[in-house]
Write a structure and sequence with these properties.
alpha+beta, HIT family, subunit A, five-stranded antiparallel sheet, 5 strands
Length: 147
């Protein structure tokens, strides 16, 4: 049984466009303006910290984070992939995995910083057009990780 918290938004809903759900975790595409390839690996049970998980679950979680990073690199060739687990606003274990491009509105600053320039719509749209193939490959990778 998965522990949930009624006050937690990541317990109440997926937290974005669901790409894949397994027994222990899910991967969603976040709706973050200016960042079309912004994904989150969300632990299904309500835990606040990575160290709350047993070693086998930590390994499974990181394998999923790596699978997302690899799919982003293979399908989009970003300038950089940012990975973060902050949880300050939503204390439910989740990892941000974000494809970054030299042309994005915030690069090289973090996505949470102020924009340095307007986002180029044509380049963002070109990335969005490649997401269906990326996500299909990602679903296959993630399914192979699950027991």
């Amino acid at each position: 049984m998965v522990a949930v918290s009624t006050a937690c938004p990541l317990c109440a809903e997926d937290g974005g466009e669901l790409v894949w759900r397994g027994e222990r975790l899910r991967v969603i595409r976040a709706n973050e303006a200016g960042f079309p390839a912004f994904y989150r690996v969300v632990w299904n049970a309500h835990v606040a910290e990575f160290s709350d998980l047993p070693a086998s679950d930590r390994a499974h979680c990181m394998d999923a984070v790596v699978a997302v990073e690899q799919a982003l690199r293979e399908h989009l060739s970003p300038t950089k992939v940012n990975i973060a687990a902050l949880g300050n606003m939503v204390p439910h274990l989740h990892w941000h995995v974000i494809a970054r491009f030299g042309w994005d509105s915030h690069f090289p600053s973090p996505v949470w910083a102020s924009a340095q320039r307007p986002g180029p719509q044509a380049q963002e749209d070109a990335v969005r057009a490649r997401l269906p193939a990326l996500e299909e490959a990602l679903r296959q990778r993630l399914a192979a990780l699950s027991p």
